[in-house]
Prior knowledge:
Elements: H1 10-31, E1 62-79, E2 89-105, E3 114-116, E4 122-127, E5 131-132, E6 136-137, E7 143-149, H2 151-158, H3 167-183, H4 186-204, E8 209-214
Parallel strand pairs: 4-8
Antiparallel strand pairs: 1-2, 2-5, 2-6, 2-7, 3-4
Amino acid sequence: MTTSIKRLPGWAKVLSAFVLVLVVLLAGLRLAVLPGLRDVFGTETNDRTGPALLKSIQDMSRYDAASGNFQVVVDLEKDAKYLPDALRGTRTLYVGAGTVDAYVDLGKLADKDVTVNEDRTTATLRLPHAALGKPALDPDRSYAVSKQRGLLDRIGDIFSDNPNGEQAVQKLAVKHISDAAKDSRLTARAEENTTGMLEGLLNSLGFKEVNVTYGT
């Protein structure tokens, strides 16, 4: 009993040999250690951003007296009402880190808020209470820990202009950092630092006594 073995036609052998040589060649180029040799399939990043435009200038009259560093872990989950999580739904764990400045607005001082005695040895200042600036999220210290998405959400990301957008968790991180700053002693610390700054400044100008109070 004989068994016939089908052999590849000549053109197929040539094509197979060419593909094999091409694969070996590309692999060799990829693993090459020659200095300056660029990966054949590598990517190149080009920054084509135009110059930044100055839109406006504002004079600052506030004294930034304290700054707080905050970190929060945001756990945001969105579920579909009648669909399982595996099909529709997202859950994102995001570490948000940022800073909040506390300042005293010296531009709101009126003439009646600053009094000096006749021999210029005592100064009394009434300042507005310290306020909190807007939280600034630090992109270098903020990152997504994990992202879970349902099948429909994954498909939707393919057709989205901004797949896996993190705007929602970033906004939540900013909100929680802002709330934490309000519950902290940041404004009190800012007032203490402002008082110390003014006392040192006025003492250097010859004032023996400096009284600083805060109010609306």
